[in-house]
Amino acid sequence: MTADDPVLLALGSINLDLQVRADRWPGPGETLPVRDLLRAAGGKAANRAYVAARLGVKACLLGHVGDDDFGEEVLRGPRAVGVDVSQVKRIAGQATALAMIVVRGDGDKTILLAANANEAWGEADVEAVVKVVEAAPEGSVLTVDLEVPIAVVRAAVCAAQARGLKVLLDPSPADRMPDDLYAMIDVITPNPEETRGLVGVEVESAEDAVRAGEQLLARGVGVACVKLGDGGAALVTAGGREVVSPLDVEVVDKTGAGDAFAGALGVALLERQELLQAVKFAVATSSLAVTAYGSQAAYPDRGQLERARGGREPRG
Ligand code: RIB
């Protein structure tokens, strides 16, 4: 790779994930025994950067960690796969964000998030991110989530727009999405819960996802990729609608699958893959991401992805 190669910029959360498996959520006052404790690096931006590096492109992580031990721990994995973590700032006196994750038997998860350093941004920090976007090589792609303040997201998106760089937004958490941001987004990637939060549509079928995608387009986004509960996605553009089925895999844990989708889609945009191919690439990556316990640990490299795509038929 050379200094001129395009970069996947990942702006958003960097968390330490503490994950357990449980059969149900505890009732009020109840202590519920759980199993399979996992302590691992996570966070939506860190996960996107990680999967992008695994898939073989340059990735740069933009975000904050605390000046505690977790701050170093959460960057070790991304650094080891080649993610550029030089722009991640350690915030003095802040704790690194902590995600407490409970995974149920069917692989679905619930997350409690202590945002800590993810929310600690001053004006100079926002300017530093804008400078990175302004200096990124031609053809780079900005990916953002909403687990950092909207002010930094908006500033980075504006800088990317001014450069003509593509912007992918994973709208999580959906209640933070401001109305004026839609028109600045090339590709939006909500899951069913986020879709309900954004446009009030319950995504129970591919038709629901397409309908929701059309409403997102009406708000100004260029392309809507609405994820389905089965791991597939509906691609909605001004020119048409397509539904992509997931690979036929055994679901172990859905944590981080959406980040794998967003990161892989960002890679495909950076590689200028045709849009439907790009969504198939992203769906296949997130299909593999659910086959192991934890987020980053389950992300495939390019060879694993291509072998799986060659050998496994999409479901349905
Ligand atoms: O999307 C999964 C991620 O969400 C986890 O890694 C956790 O950190 C939360 O931000």
Question: Which terms would index this structure?
Answer:
alpha/beta, four-stranded mixed sheet, 9 helices, 14 strands, binds alpha-D-ribofuranose
The CATH class name reads: Alpha Beta
- Uncertain segments are none
What is the CATH architecture term? 3-Layer(aba) Sandwich
Q: Please state the CA-atom Rg, rounded to the nearest Å.
A: 18 Å
Listed once per kind, the bound small molecules are:
alpha-D-ribofuranose
Return the CATH topology: UDP-N-acetylmuramoyl-L-alanine:D-glutamate ligase
Give the % helix: 25-40%
Structure description:
This protein has 316 residues and is α/β, with parallel strands linked by helices. The protein has a single domain (44-95, 122-309), classed as 3-Layer(aba) Sandwich (UDP-N-acetylmuramoyl-L-alanine:D-glutamate ligase), CATH 3.40.1190. The chain is 35% helix and 22% strand. The chain contains nine helices and 14 strands. The chain has helices at 44-54, 69-80, 123-135, 150-163, 192-199, 206-218, 257-270, 275-289, 302-311, and strands spanning 7-11, 15-21, 35-42, 58-62, 64-66, 89-91, 97-103, 109-114, 141-145, 166-170, 187-188, 223-227, 233-237, 240-244. The strands form three sheets. An eight-stranded mixed β-sheet has the order 4-1-9-10-11-12-13-14, sandwiched between helices. The chain has a four-stranded mixed β-sheet with strand order 3-2-7-8. A two-stranded parallel sheet has the order 5-6. It is globular and about 50 Å long. Bound molecules: alpha-D-ribofuranose. Alpha-D-ribofuranose is lined by residues 13, 15, 17, 42-44, 47, 99, 111, 147, 255-256, 258-259, 295.
